[in-house]
Design goal:
The chain is of the alpha/beta class and about 450 residues long. It has eleven helices and 19 strands. It has three domains: about 230 residues, no CATH class; about 80 residues, Ubiquitin-like (UB roll) (Roll); about 70 residues, no CATH class. The longest helix is centred in the last third of the chain and has 16 residues. The protein has a six-stranded mixed beta sheet. Strands 2-16-15-19-17-18 form a six-stranded mixed beta sheet. Strand 17 and strand 18 form a beta hairpin. Helices cover about 20% and strands about 20% of the residues.
C-alpha cells in the first residue's frame, strides 16, 4: 500500500450531515425510473414498449452503436411511460412495480465482458478519455476504483456497501481479466479493505481526493492514446455479486441529508426509486427546498415527483434561495457568509465548522482572470484556466496538450464552486469532451 498526499482541493462542510450509520427501510417504491442521460455515451434504442411487463434485470434498451450494451430494469413491473422530450429524446422510462420478485439470471461461464454488458453493469463503468460508458472494442490499460466519496455530505461507501463487501475479491478477479494492467483501489486514511489482487493506495487530502480520476492522475496518469476505466467500490461489489450468484441486486442504500432534512439518515430502497417514497415526511419545507440527486457539486436538480438518479446513493436537500431580498445581495458583509477566501470574516471562526448555504450563485458571469483559482482546487498536473480557455475556443491541439484526456466534468466541480468568474465549468468540460470525441471518431 502506498500513501498519496494531496494538498490541493477544499472540504466544504455543510449543515445536515448524517450522525448515525444505521440504515432505515423505506416503503416499496410506487414508481421506478431509468434516465438515459445518466449513462453518457449510450444512445438508447428501446427494446420494450409502454404497457409491456419486465422483470428485474431485463433489458429496457440497448446502445444504438452496440446492441450488446444494455440498460436494464431495476424492478419487476409494467412500463408505465416512455417519457420523451425535445426531438423525441428519451427523458425517462417509468416502471410501475408489482409484487413479482423474479430476477434475470445470467450464465457467468462465458466472456466476462459480454456478461457485464448483458447485465447492465457495463453502463455503470466510465472510460477516460471522454468520461463515457466504455465501448466494447478497447481493453483498458488499468482500472481505477474509488472506495470513498469526499464530496460535501457524501455517504460513507462502507455503509452503502453493507454486506456486499464479501464480493469485492470476486469483482477484482473479473476486472483483472479485462485489463492488461492493474486494478487500483483508492482508500481514505484509516479505511480498511480486503482487496486481494488489487493495488491499494491511500489518499490523504481534501475533496476531490475521492474522485477516481484524481486518484488515477496521481497514480498512473492518463496520456494520449491510453484508455482506463473508473468506477466506485459499490459497482465493483455488484460485479463480484453477479459473477458469484449470476444475478444483479438492484437494491441500494441512499444517504438523505442536508439542511432541509428533518432527520438526515441512510435509507434502503431500489435504484431509480421515486423521491416521494424515499423522502416521505423528511422535508422541513418543500416549497423552499432544492432537492439534488447526488451531491451539491455534481448532482442533478430534481422535483419531488421525480426519481433517484445514478449512481443511486445520495440525495441532498438545501435551502432554495433563502434570502432573495438580502441587503446588498452577494456583496453583503454579513459575518455569517461563507467564502473560501478571506473576503468575509467567516475564516476567523475556521472553515471546518458546518455552515448554511442555499442555491444562489451570488454573482454574475465575468471574464476569466488568471488567478490560479482552478489550479488550487484541482490536484492534477494540468493548468485549469488555460484548459478551459482552450475548450471555449475549440482549440483541439491545445486541449490535448493541456491534459483533457485525463479529466471529467466532476473534476472541475470544486473549481466551479470557487470560481469568481461564475462560469459553468462542468458544462464547458462536458462539451469539450464530446467535441473531441466526435472529432476523433
Amino acid at each position: 500500500m502506498s500513501i498519496v498526499k494531496l494538498k490541493k482541493g477544499f472540504d466544504i462542510h455543510l449543515l445536515g450531515a448524517i450522525q448515525s450509520d444505521n440504515v432505515a427501510f423505506t416503503s416499496p417504491a410506487r414508481s421506478v425510473a431509468v434516465v438515459p442521460d445518466d449513462f453518457h455515451g449510450v444512445i438508447p434504442r428501446m427494446e420494450k414498449k409502454e404497457g409491456e411487463h419486465v422483470i428485474a434485470g431485463e433489458p429496457l434498451y440497448h446502445d444504438k452503436n452496440n446492441e450488446d450494451i444494455k440498460v436494464v430494469a431495476p424492478v419487476c413491473g409494467s412500463i408505465k411511460e416512455v417519457r420523451r422530450g425535445v426531438r423525441r429524446h428519451i427523458d425517462a422510462i417509468i416502471i410501475s412495480p408489482d409484487s413479482d420478485s423474479s430476477v434475470v439470471k445470467h450464465n457467468t461461464g462465458g466472456d466476462p465482458m459480454q456478461v457485464l454488458m448483458a447485465s447492465g453493469l457495463w453502463a455503470m463503468l466510465r472510460q477516460r478519455p471522454y468520461d463515457v460508458v466504455p465501448p466494447a472494442a478497447v481493453r483498458p490499460r488499468d482500472v481505477f476504483v474509488t472506495a470513498f466519496d469526499s464530496a460535501p455530505l457524501a455517504p460513507d461507501l462502507n455503509v452503502v456497501l453493507g454486506d456486499k463487501r464479501q464480493y469485492i475479491g470476486r469483482g477484482i478477479e473479473v476486472l483483472k481479466s479485462l485489463t492488461d494492467g492493474n486494478v487500483y483501489i483508492g482508500v481514505r486514511e484509516g479505511q480498511e479493505i480486503n482487496a486481494p489482487g488489487a493495488q491499494v493506495n491511500t489518499f490523504v487530502g481534501p475533496h476531490p481526493a475521492g474522485n477516481a480520476g484524481v486518484q488515477a492522475a496521481n497514480t498512473v496518469p492518463v496520456n494520449k492514446g491510453d484508455v482506463v476505466w473508473t468506477l466506485d467500490i459499490v459497482t465493483l461489489a455488484r460485479i463480484g455479486e453477479l459473477f458469484t450468484t449470476g444475478m444483479v441486486s438492484h437494491d441500494t442504500v441512499v444517504a438523505v441529508d442536508g439542511e432541509m432534512v428533518q432527520e438526515p439518515r441512510y435509507v434502503k430502497t431500489v435504484m431509480g426509486a421515486d423521491l416521494e417514497t424515499v423522502l416521505k415526511n423528511e422535508l422541513t419545507n418543500v416549497a423552499k427546498s432544492r432537492i439534488i440527486s447526488g451531491n451539491v457539486l455534481t448532482g442533478v436538480k430534481v422535483d419531488p415527483d421525480q426519481w433517484l438518479r445514478a449512481p443511486y446513493r445520495h440525495i441532498t436537500i438545501i435551502p432554495e434561495n433563502s434570502q432573495p431580498d438580502e441587503f446588498m445581495g452577494w456583496a453583503s458583509f454579513n459575518p455569517s457568509r461563507f467564502s473560501i477566501y478571506r473576503t468575509f470574516t467567516t475564516w476567523l471562526r475556521g472553515l471546518k465548522k458546518p455552515v448554511s448555504m442555499d442555491s444562489r450563485i451570488k454573482g454574475g458571469e465575468r471574464a476569466i482572470v488568471r488567478t490560479g483559482e482552478y489550479d488550487a482546487m484541482l490536484p492534477m498536473e494540468i493548468y485549469g484556466e488555460f484548459l478551459i480557455k482552450a475548450i471555449i475556443s475549440g482549440d483541439i491541439d491545445k486541449m490535448e496538450q493541456l491534459g483533457i484526456y485525463e479529466i471529467a466534468p466532476e473534476d472541475f466541480a470544486l473549481a466551479e464552486f470557487a470560481d469568481t468568474s461564475k462560469l459553468e465549468l462542468q458544462r464547458i468540460v462536458r462539451e469539450g469532451l464530446d467535441k473531441l470525441r466526435a472529432e476523433m471518431s
